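Appendix B. One record, verbatim.
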Amino acid sequence: MKKIISLLSLTFLLLTISSCKKVEYSKALIGVWYMDKFTENGSDRTNFFNTNFPNYSVTFNKDHSFSEHTTILGLKINVSGTWKIKGMSDKLVLKTTLPTSSTRSFDMKKLTATEFYGKLVQSANKQEYFLKR
């Protein structure tokens, strides 16, 4: 009986810690972010990103909606959808609803009040996003 109570206590403690981290991460994520550095397969591709997606920004809202903004060939591009933190507070999942439906899942490596570092792996392509406020 003591083993069961100990196991239940440990499980409750781990769930509580996980929930607290999700709330902390959610609060830290809310706001407007800008591209600071972008790498692809280990190579710095920041200039490429900034040239192809000028004035890029992403905004995370309290209601778990997000929007990305950039300009391509003089046209303003807006992408929107929903976000959530999944797992033990280490995955950021973006589900795009407009203009098309897609899902991106970032491994969050760092999230503070001013810095976000996330890794996105799609097939053999590894992209790393370093965002700042």
